[in-house]
UniProtKB/TrEMBL annotation:
Protein name: Alpha/beta hydrolase
Record region (Disordered): 385-410
Matching InterPro entries: AB_hydrolase_fold (IPR029058), Esterase-like (IPR000801), Ig-like_fold (IPR013783), Ig_E-set (IPR014756), Mycobacterial_A85_antigen (IPR050583)
Species this chain originates from: Micromonospora zhanjiangensis
Keyword Hydrolase: yes
Length: 735
């Protein structure tokens, strides 16, 4: 099926080669930021968002007019696990570079185009912008979880203003000030005030552009969930935080009707801003009665803390952190212990299990923190679903094998840590490609240099089967410390994230599963000896009176007979299905379908060889045929050319392009089950499957549609398809 998809797909060798370039984002030299060199005409949006799926279509001509000729293009965005920044490879399809990802969690995303590793470009068709870095664009995926991020109706929001303040001789800086709906500059009772700091390497606009602070404040205000307050967004990245904060406070008091007493002042910040806030609260107790640190931490182990003074002057000190991918995770653990030793009263929001050191986490932190200000609060516990922080996150020493190193959180989700060898010490950029994007799609997560190695942690990963590789300076490399092996993809490694949901893919206890053997047969189609894998069920009896029913299970393009075992986990799926009483005893033959005439190969070569070597039925009613992608197309072709030869047919991400030639009566008479599967809209054959079903409806061919499998054109979907399909076979026959 090479050439049929605009998206990257691991089932096709040619597609792999074509899109390797789109996977890497090596910075070979200085990054060239080309925000000004925009396409002359870009009326058609490069991004469309529907039902949580983000579809990118970047016209090649527009890219070339802005950047010149490019050979690889990615979308760099917070699409990775825990909202981590990651690279989504775009594939060239006709006159555009395209890809689809999703379903995305509701929230705000930011992205930019990276071409040839060094050229950064803002999407000129998107008005969503990030002032502090004009290469980024933003978009919102709506949903209940993101309701606070939406704009309030016109006329119901607050107002933004600006104040300037001195930071040195003949030097001033500016801050943004939000005043609540109905703000009264002459109100008898001054408004309480929150000073909100951003992280390092940002600006005061980040809390607006990336933090959606205005929308969060206004939605909470409209719903009556916060006290009317003034919020000041300062830069906060000056060389001396405390004097600058005092200068800012004086300027705001002169311009706005705000309270001057500590009981009506609050201070909060994210990342480095959170660390500044926390240190100030502990070294200047009583300046601010309400303090929030979003993924900040104490960096001075020898800081002297007067617990009594802090407690006397602080009504609320609340700490936040992301999960094990958050660099603040371990420092937060240490900070909590320090506060306990100093007998400082504090709240801890718990570990956010789904987010790392990201704006998504800090938006949630702000939404939790604001309703706690300037009013009595009785709930001092963690947010719903947040986890305890009972120990630091630790990984083995450099060079420990095997990899990856798996750590599970209190929810049972897995965090996988990988490490390269020292052979890449001189690499310019290393990323980790794998199937951990939403829906099982593929993104590259940048790794961090650690001495003479590269390291990184991805997660949380739900229980399932994962595969990955390193991209080192745009070249795919195997994790040689991982002993797993994929015959058709020699740079891939695999691991299983354990848990109940991964039960069908888990090894059964030794001696409790079926037997996997190889079958050698002669192919008259390609004039060569070939090999198939054959699974026989536990207790297989070659002398049994009744022959076993048989399933012929085919792979996709660019693969071979090894893939259903090494990637599809077919043995584990069959072993567990049998042990759980879900599948009848059957024999499963996984042959090599890479031939110009698959019908002849199967019927003249694979089937006779299997019948000669195994005690399997010749009765079409006890024969099944299924395949993924190319193998599914082959199965449908056999259904057309040899109707009734296989009573059970399953197609995983496959369809037909030509509706002629079907003997409808023979198909319906000889087929007990024709069951069709497809991934979601990220599966490039999704439209083909839908059109095939429409064709079958018109022709009158009976079939079942399994519904959309949430996943792309990849193993995440096909494993689920086999798990569903195998238990449906041969149930009407005696076994």
């Amino acid at each position: 099926m090479a050439g049929a998809s605009p998206h990257w797909r691991p089932t096709h060798r040619a597609g792999v080669r074509r899109c390797l370039a789109a996977l890497g984002t090596l910075i070979l030299g200085a990054v060239v930021v080309l925000t000004g060199a925009q396409p002359a005409a870009a009326a058609t949006p490069w991004l469309t968002v529907s039902d949580g799926f983000a579809s990118f279509r970047v016209p090649a001509a527009d890219l070339e007019s802005a950047l010149g000729t490019v050979s690889n293009v990615v979308v760099e965005a917070d699409f990775g696990p825990s909202f981590a920044l990651a690279d989504l490879g775009l594939g060239r399809s006709g006159d555009a570079w395209t890809s689809v990802i999703g379903p995305l969690r509701p929230g705000l995303y930011h992205y930019r185009i990276r071409a040839d590793g060094t050229k950064l470009l803002k999407d000129p068709t998107n008005t969503g912008a990030v002032t502090s870095d004009p290469t980024w664009s933003t978009f919102l995926v709506s949903g209940d979880a993101a309701s606070l991020l939406a704009d309030v109706p016109a006329g119901q929001g607050g107002t933004l203003g600006t104040v300037s303040y001195p930071v040195g001789p003949r030097q001033t800086r500016s801050a943004t000030v939000w005043t609540p709906p109905g703000y009264d500059a002459h109100r008898h009772r001054p408004y309480p005030v929150l000073y909100l700091q951003q992280g390092a390497d940002g600006s005061r606009t980040d809390w607006l552009d990336l933090g959606r602070a205005r929308q969060i404040l206004e939605n909470l205000a409209v719903r009556g969930r916060i006290e009317p307050m003034v919020v000041v967004l300062g830069d906060g990245d000056g060389p001396d935080f405390q004097p600058e904060l005092r200068a800012l406070a004086r300027a705001v008091r002169r311009a706005y009707n705000i309270a001057d007493d500590p009981a009506h002042r609050a201070l909060a910040g994210a990342s480095a801003g959170g660390s500044q806030v926390l240190r100030h609260a502990l070294t200047h107790p009583g300046d601010y009665a309400y303090v929030g640190s979003f993924a900040g931490s104490l960096t001075d182990e020898h800081l002297r803390i007067d617990g009594r003074a802090v407690n006397a002057g602080t009504r609320l000190l609340r700490l936040y952190t992301g999960n094990m991918t958050d660099p603040a995770y371990n420092p937060t653990y240490q900070t909590l212990r320090t506060l306990d030793r100093s007998r400082v009263r504090h709240d801890f929001d718990g570990v956010n299990p789904d987010d790392g050191h990201t704006w998504n986490a800090w938006r949630e932190n702000l939404a939790d923190f604001l309703p706690r200000l300037f009013r009595p609060v009785h709930d001092h516990g963690p947010s719903a679903g947040h986890l305890p922080l009972t120990r630091e996150f630790a990984t083995p020493a450099p060079g420990s094998t095997p990899t990856p190193w798996l750590t599970r959180d209190a929810n049972g989700d897995t965090f996988a840590t990988v490490e390269t060898g020292t052979e890449y010490a001189g690499a310019g950029r290393v990323t980790l490609w794998g199937n951990w994007a939403p829906g099982g799609s593929w993104v590259n997560v940048p790794l961090t240099r650690s001495g003479d190695r590269w390291r990184g942690t991805v997660g949380p990963l739900k229980p399932w089967f994962y595969y990955y590789k390193f991209i080192v300076d745009l070249v795919s490399k195997k994790d040689t410390a991982n002993p797993t092996h994929i015959t058709t993809e020699p740079t891939w490694s695999t691991f299983l994230a354990p848990g109940p949901a991964a039960h069908p893919l888990t090894d059964v206890p030794a001696g409790r599963g079926g037997t996997l053997t190889t079958l050698t047969y002669t192919s008259t189609v390609v004039a060569a000896e070939r090999t198939a894998y054959v699974w026989t069920p536990p207790g297989y009896d070659p002398a049994r009176a009744e022959p076993y029913p048989v399933l012929y299970l085919q792979h996709g393009g660019g693969q071979n007979y090894t893939d259903w075992v090494e990637m599809g986990r077919a043995k584990q799926i069959l072993d567990n299905g049998f042990r759980d009483g879900k599948i009848v005893p059957m024999v499963v033959v996984m042959g090599n379908g890479n031939v110009p005439d698959f019908g002849k190969e199967l019927l003249d070569n694979i089937v006779p060889a299997a019948r000669a070597a195994y005690h399997i039925s010749h009765d079409p009613a006890r024969q099944a045929l299924a395949g993924l992608s190319m193998g599914g197309f082959q199965a449908l072709d056999l259904l057309k050319t040899h109707p009734g030869e296989f009573a059970y047919v399953g197609t995983f991400s496959a369809g037909v392009f030509n509706s002629t030639g079907f003997d409808v009566a023979a198909v319906n008479r000889g087929t007990k089950l024709l069951r069709m599967y497809t991934g979601n809209v990220t599966d490039f054959v999704y439209p083909t499957v839908l059109s095939t079903m429409a064709t079958f409806d018109t022709l009158g061919i009976r079939y079942e549609f399994a519904g959309v499998t949430q996943g792309p054109h990849g193993w995440d979907a096909w494993q689920k398809n086999l798990i569903d399909f195998a238990p449906r076979l041969f149930r009407s026959d005696s076994t």
